[in-house]
Amino acid sequence: MHNPLGNFNYLIGCEKTRQAIAVDPLDGEAMVSLAREHNYDIKLIVNTHEHHDHIEGNPAVVEATGADIIAHKNAMASIPNVSRGVSAGDVIELGMLRLNVLFTPGHTPVHLCLLVNAEDNDGVPALFSGDTLFNACAGNCRNGGDVDQMYDSFVSQLQPLPDETLLYPGHDYMKNNLAFALTREPDNQDAKQWKQSVSSFDHDEMPVMTMGQERSYNPFLRLHNRDIITKLKEDFPHLGLSDRDVFKALRKLRDEW
Ligand SMILES: [Zn+2]
């Protein structure tokens, strides 16, 4: 994953049928080579949303493999050549793979996440979160998004996920995000420790975190934290105390940071 935007391009393979799904290809040729190297045949592309850095590799993958493109049904107008539009509750199946579609608008109005249930992944659930949930942050809402929708997606779709859920975000912004988290909660020991332990890591060396770990340092999953709220009051003296108010204030500060 050597690209200037820190995009993660995921290849999810079925070991039995050797078929694979490419999630958010930016460098399509690299995805195709990776699949060939590991003896996988890319059959499907899933785009979490319509931003160029999540779809740019589609044509190269399609040309090399003939893969079908899947995206949210409301993204079909903004992503070229989508052959299947999906909605919340749909399941994308390939070989033994089963990816559950979550509808998570906020970063854009047509954003989806992919959830692999525990029983389909050796007992450990996994979330491909696109630009909705990052390590130590929420995605921004500045390019066609809506922060109220993002809050709703967090509360309804992400917060209920069990602690052991593995998180595969759309970009690596972890170091920067932990630095921001520490401006909001300077005494958070987990944030400090993780910032230290990943400080020398390259994008492709970053650890895969769990939802439980995210809950210990990600301010957007810590909306009841007293230190966070007290500090926000310094910047927003008239801040209401609802979770939504806290979430939106954090997102505003992250935008300006
Ligand atoms: Zn995006």
From TrEMBL:
Entries under SMART domains matching the protein: Lactamase_B
Gene3D superfamilies the UniProt entry points to: Ribonuclease Z/Hydroxyacylglutathione hydrolase-like
Pathway this chain belongs to: Secondary metabolite metabolism; methylglyoxal degradation; (R)-lactate from methylglyoxal: step 2/2
Pfam families (UniProt xref): HAGH_C, Lactamase_B
Its EC number(s): 3.1.2.6
InterPro entries: Clx_II_MBL (IPR035680), Glyoxalase_II_hydrolase (IPR050110), HAGH_C (IPR032282), Metallo-B-lactamas (IPR001279), RibonucZ/Hydroxyglut_hydro (IPR036866)
Family listed: Belongs to the metallo-beta-lactamase superfamily. Glyoxalase II family.
Protein name from the UniProt record: hydroxyacylglutathione hydrolase
Annotated source species: Thalassolituus maritimus
